[in-house]
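Submission checklist for the structure archive. All mandatory fields must be present; incomplete records are returned to the submitter.

[x] Identifier: IS66 family insertion sequence element accessory protein TnpB
[x] Organism: Azonexus hydrophilus
[x] Residue count: 115
[x] Sequence attached
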Amino acid sequence: MISLPSGTRIWLAAGMTDMRRGFDGLASIVQEKLAADPFAGHIFVFRGRRGDLVKLLWWDGDGLCLFAKRLERGRFIWPQASEGSVHLSGAQLSMLLEGIDWRRPSRTGQPERAA
């Protein structure tokens, strides 16, 4: 995994995105629909209609980076909202990219006693 500079925020674009879009098309969505700066160094995550493909747009300081991931089985968990954005933590992004429900992760167990 590529390490991100401290202070990098992760924004998930609610709703569905046309996955035929590339660098410029996704950057224009960030500017127009999300009212954010695609060159601020934050990560913007987009999902296709079928739900098995995501694209991440990130300005690394030298240029735009576009990463894509397609799940062979299952779908990426996405918020119900049809517009706007949702802030994710790095851990939530990792879960999202693994196909895990990042909204309500469940703990494997609670300690019953301390010793």
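[x] Structure attached
Curator remark: The chain is about 15% helix and 25% strand. Strands lie at 10-13, 43-47, 53-59, 64-70, 85-88.
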